[in-house]
Design a protein that fits this description.
This protein has three helices and six strands; from the N terminus they run βαββαβαββ. By secondary structure, the protein is α+β, with helices and mostly antiparallel strands. The structure holds tetrahydrodeoxyuridine. Tetrahydrodeoxyuridine (THU) binds next to strand 2 and helix 2.
């Protein structure tokens, strides 16, 4: 028997003032775009903004549906847009924020499991890691080097026979 360990490190900033200018601007854009979410059922607005290697910025928000499972998270809305408009273009950095209409937004949230799977596949497809900036509308900011760090032992196309 062998025991293996998975570890990853990430950076924690006190707030967005501590970020470099480009990162602060991208996070600010994600925060602003929370207004565009369509989330009448959960009232939990999520938004993300991606800076691509080609310099373009793409945004995404959660899009809900009365048939709840039809809902698409902000991250996968964004990936569908990037994959369509700029197929395989690396995403350098993705900032994610949220605004719950009935609550506070003072701590970072991180992508759900399904979005981690989708982000990891986009990293593989584009050949570059996606750096994540996670934060609420205020408060601490986490910076993670790669979406892959959030999904150890991920399933991928390598596993398909
Ligand atoms: N949501 C996202 O958009 N991204 C996540 O990573 C977590 C959850 C959305 C889905 C749903 O519309 C609402 O947040 C509440 O779960």
């Amino acid at each position: 028997m062998k025991e293996k360990k998975f570890q990853f490190s990430y950076k924690v900033f006190k707030n967005s003032d501590e970020l470099i200018e480009d990162d602060a601007a991208l996070l600010q854009q994600a925060r602003k775009v929370t207004k565009k979410a369509y989330a009448p059922y959960s009232r939990f607005h999520v938004a993300c903004a991606a800076r691509l290697e080609n310099g373009r910025t793409v945004i995404g928000t959660n899009q809900e549906n009365a048939s709840y499972p039809v809902t698409i998270c902000a991250e996968r809305t964004l990936l569908a847009a990037v994959g369509t408009q700029y197929a395989d273009e690396p995403i350098e950095t993705l900032a994610i924020s949220y605004h719950p209409l009935d609550g506070e937004s003072k701590h970072p949230i991180s992508p759900c499991g399904m979005c981690r799977q989708a982000l990891t596949e986009y990293e593989k497809r584009s050949g570059k890691p996606i750096r994540l900036i996670l934060s609420g509308m205020e408060g601490p900011v986490y910076v993670i080097d790669s979406a892959k760090d959030l999904l150890p032992l991920a399933f991928s196309d390598d596993d398909l026979a």
